[in-house]
Write a structure and sequence with these properties.
Elements lengths: L2 H30 L3 E7 L7 E10 L7 E2 L1 E4 L15 E8 L3 E13 L4 E6 L4 E2 L14 E6 L11 E12 L12 H8 L5 E5 L11 E3 L6 E6 L2 H6 L10 E5 L1 H9 L4
Antiparallel strand pairs: 1-2, 1-5, 2-4, 3-8, 4-7, 5-6, 6-7, 9-10, 9-12, 10-11, 11-14, 12-13, 13-14
């Protein structure tokens, strides 16, 4: 085989590998879409009646591997207790058919404020769930993807998927030069007894993506939870112009949340 045929063979191999990678993500999206959810509130006297708060994803119950009635999202996606309207109902919207959505009432099982996570249980039949993977094996430079409802649903209630790379694994909070530049989220994080690392992404997430899954493009396993508020507040509090970098909370904290609520 001469150098020209070798070059052509290598080029074709590269094209086939790239095509296979895109095909893997495409098939993964089809498989996981039924497990993505919209988190919000419903009030009959409001217009509109439904208010989107963020994204969530279904996780399996212990007794029903692969299906469940539990959902993970960010804690900040929920209304602060002081702002909760007693006449509004916490709900999740789950896919029903190709383009429809079904509204289910939900209740909070646990809020993990340190890692900005919340676990909900919703009414009705169990649905297909994400598998939560082990984020301890994630490496910098690894290809990932995330799914959610960016810009608060202004782009429509259709889940949007973005590719990304783990550009850094770094502390969730950074020290700032002066106390005047610390916001409340940064102070709470710096005072915490258990500092933790987060994933910095080179993909751009938007408000509405909060609470959505960061997942392996090939397997669909959840590796983290996209966060647009808490981490940006702690890492970028010293910046006059926020960087626009996106972050995710590693899934190890989701696994611990699920373990604490086994059987709930």
């Amino acid at each position: 085989m001469n150098w020209r045929s070798t070059s052509i063979t290598l080029t074709l191999a590269a094209v086939l590998i790239a095509t296979a990678a895109h095909a893997d993500l495409a098939s993964t999206i089809v498989r996981i879409k039924p497990s993505i959810a919209i988190v919000g509130t419903y009030k009959a006297t409001n217009s509109p009646r439904f208010t989107l708060r963020g994204t969530g994803f279904v996780v399996s119950d212990d007794a029903r591997q692969g299906q469940g009635n539990r959902l993970v999202t960010n804690a900040h996606v929920l209304m602060p207790p002081a702002d909760v309207d007693p006449d509004a109902t916490l709900v999740v919207q789950l896919r029903s058919g190709a383009n429809g959505w079904q509204t289910r009432a939900a209740k909070v099982l646990e809020v993990d404020t340190q890692h900005d996570l919340a676990l909900l249980r919703f009414d009705g039949p169990a649905v297909t769930a994400f598998k939560v993977g082990n984020s301890d094996k994630v490496q910098e430079g690894q290809s990932v993807a995330f799914m959610g409802f960016p810009i608060g649903g202004l782009l429509g209630f259709s889940p949007v998927t973005h590719r990304a790379t783990i550009s850094s694994i770094a502390p969730a909070a950074l020290p700032t030069p002066t106390a005047s530049q610390l916001n409340p989220e940064a102070i709470r994080s710096l005072r915490g007894n258990s500092p933790f690392d987060i994933f910095q992404l080179d993909g751009t997430a938007y408000p509405g993506n909060s609470g959505g899954p960061l997942f392996d493009p090939d397997t669909g396993e959840v590796l983290g939870v996209v966060n647009m508020v808490l981490i940006k507040g702690t890492r970028e509090s010293a910046l006059s112009h926020p960087s626009g970098i996106s972050y995710a909370v590693p899934s190890r904290w989701v696994l611990e949340l699920l373990q604490r609520n086994a059987g709930n």
